[in-house]
Write a sequence for this structure.
């Protein structure tokens, strides 16, 4: 089990969300409340798009900072959170489900301007891994640097067209994992909440083969956020479009957080955000 | 808060105590039950005296292995625990109370053939540190390599005669810390369970200025230990003298573990072990 | 021996100096040319003042990023260098002269808005350390977090008035080190090149008790820098005030680099820069 | 480029070879003399078979200790070298040729009771990797934990029968790499010195597709070794069978070290050692 957070909206300093809230993500690295594990100390990562990334058409590769120790004691993370401002960033704290604790296994994973982070796992991953790896496009294969199921899911989604159709590619990835697992006799193989972004939009998926998915929440509105953090000047100035998606709520304010429904995904984008059904598709056809 | 363990008896592989018991020390690094913090992920260390350390008069410097990541995911610790056999060893998992997570702050601390480990803290340590450091003997001062209160307590005890009179030196150290704290207006300054060894005997202290000390237990007898781990061949062959001291019990067997009483210390040695009163003394006179 | 670099001028991305030049600082971590050691793999650090740090009177604490592995393989350093832009920054690669490889021993050291980095050493430091530590002001003492001579020199300089008179305080620090060394019978105790900044000005010192100081160079003018890196758009736009100070030259362009003379210091500031004599003073009177 | 060492003979403390010789392996981590890179600071590892591993038929899994920092500053390595005694051990210092610096990429690699270490590389590895990975037996595939060419060569050799016929399997591995490379238009793909052991025998291979292999030496006889280290009591008592194989000689004694000839391998075993020709074979048929 891991915990993650994704932010899209008016540019803010990362520390506003990573450190300052009552039940912040860094606090969750020591004391998560929801999910199988209460400690998420097997590495962490942040990924952010720069504040000044030019016009809407400029392709910008996001920056990534990842560490293998626990987030709660990392001095560099604390420094960066204090001086990096971004309109779109993600953060992840890891609890390994078996693969090594090393930087190449820390989220977010990046490919070109895309960022990916995941909470969950593929059941019996060692058994399924080879067949899943073989399905990754040969031109993408050399960019896999770690050994996790999470990164492999990203490269399968890229193989299945993530850059053109995010929800479709993730649905095909999920379908392919389920088909492969079925062939190996593995039941209920996929458990996932996933965040994806290319710097402008943000997608957040909540799905599991057994329909008992890990928790995922989004902030209802910037008004509720402001009420949640009345002392926070950054949020006072945040635009109406500002949105946060989290594995578990920051703070306990009633009404501030809504669950993403089971087997659904959310799109945070200019204009109206949306929540839609998620249905795995036969990924290989 | 930290957790620790000390073993003296028939030589066993370290993994017998570090990994195999139901509520092992490594398990406690993720899920401690007693004490302020449930996670002890800010480094760890083991120290051991070699199995074949010659006759009773040979002075042997123990080996120390320390890491800055969490014990639960350390592959090297797992390897060593599997291949190191020792008749007297200690292990420590750290939860920092403020000082940096770095190897020089990990327990056990070593000086010549002495090992020291500590759970607890000196209250308002930054305020008191300078005065405490000044009291360390100038010839010992250069051997302080870290920045913790724990290591400083060790060097104060060495200054106050640890090598000649262990309980007396620890009592003088405690007295000196309390006197210094009083001068700075700091109440209830000392909280400690401490283990000390020179390779033959093992001392374990439980004390706090406010008489609300952290938990400390010793195994009642090797018979109880065998009952605790009936499947363990190492313990089946363990001598009557075998003894384990721990911050919190391994496993839940009734009768296997006895608390060290408040403000007392235990001596594990050839012949009869002993439990005696601990009384801080004016350390500086 | 270590290597370092300090930049003051038009805001540029850190990678322009850390990675892009022919004989860049990161390259020097593997293959330094000047000085006793060719490898500087015992940690590294960067410190920078933000690009948008408001008006001239605003006090800004710089950001610091430090790692304990070699700079040449650090992925996070590479990421930050690519996305951090600053008008005044420093970078350091460390070759330990005996103290532990740990983050608290990596340069730059920071106190409030001051940054300090050092190449060199205090001879017989373990012998002199206690007396030097005792001279640090009691109110500053708790902010010492590592165990190096370099950080201690910083806190001595702070004690001797760094915040009011930089050259004077560094001269008093040097004098105090030499006086203390003389009392212990240690000859030629001090070897240093030092960079100091508060975010607006930059001081660089070159001194050694034996007048055989480690190398130190400054860029003659932005014109020479442009000639050095004609392909570099950042430098093409750099102001006339832009200045770089380095342990050893980046690249081999004739005329681009001038040595700071023996027993001198340079001040990089608004208006005319200056080079002046450095003379240790009795620091304790 | 990396450097490695393998020892077989009378049990000795690891430090006898790792630290004590004039041009020891740890010294080579900072200052190697032969080969493309003089610094080997991208991690290290040791693997050893226990001193008391029972009768000749007992299968014993060796212990492995690996670190990601430079060997020269690793305190734990120093401790272990001082207290681990072994009749057969290997050590490796790494200079990455592109893959990540992480524990799973450090040598030696282990599978059951086998140890493997490698100096060299597969040219254009990212281009060839997928085809090479596909050839690994599906039952072995899940045991690959890192991302190096070195580990993949080990698993290919295991696939091609290493456990039954060491030289044959390594020759088939080499042949398969060359065939695969040829298919991709990659010339001179393989560069390797390799050590393999199962705890009793030790094989050392020197080969490269272009017949310009990295250096490899073996100690001529224990007499020469004793002459090399007259002060070393361990070697004075070493048996006639004692043998050391190294990437580059320890010390400069004339006559102590002999090169393994180009395209050959050595077998160190009970009775007569042997040097034989190495000829890659079509690995896939």
């Amino acid at each position: 089990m891991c915990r993650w957070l994704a932010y899209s909206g008016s540019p803010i300093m990362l520390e506003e969300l990573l450190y300052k809230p009552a039940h912040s993500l860094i606090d969750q690295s020591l004391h998560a409340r929801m999910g199988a594990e209460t400690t998420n100390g097997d590495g962490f990562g942040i990924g952010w798009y720069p504040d000044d990334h030019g016009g809407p058409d400029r392709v910008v590769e996001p920056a990534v900072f990842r560490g293998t120790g626990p987030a709660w004691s990392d001095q560099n993370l604390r420094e960066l959170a204090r001086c990096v401002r971004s309109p779109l960033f993600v953060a992840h704290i890891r609890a390994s489900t078996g693969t090594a604790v090393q930087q190449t296994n820390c989220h977010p994973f990046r490919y070109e301007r895309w960022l990916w982070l995941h909470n969950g796992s593929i059941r019996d991953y060692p058994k399924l891994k080879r067949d899943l790896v073989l399905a990754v496009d040969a031109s993408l294969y050399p960019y896999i640097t770690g050994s996790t199921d999470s990164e492999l899911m990203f490269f399968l989604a890229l193989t299945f067209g993530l850059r053109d159709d995010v929800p479709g590619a993730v649905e095909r990835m999920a379908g392919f994992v389920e088909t492969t697992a079925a062939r190996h006799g593995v039941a209920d193989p996929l458990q996932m909440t996933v965040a994806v972004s290319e710097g402008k939009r943000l997608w957040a998926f909540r799905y599991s083969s057994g329909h008992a998915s890990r928790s995922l929440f989004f902030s209802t509105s910037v008004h509720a956020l402001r009420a949640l953090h009345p002392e926070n000047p950054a949020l006072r100035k945040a635009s109406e479009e500002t949105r946060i998606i989290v594995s578990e709520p920051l703070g306990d304010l009633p009404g501030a957080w809504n669950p993403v429904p089971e087997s659904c995904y959310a799109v945070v984008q200019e204009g109206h955000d949306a929540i839609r059904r998620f249905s795995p598709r036969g990924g290989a056809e």
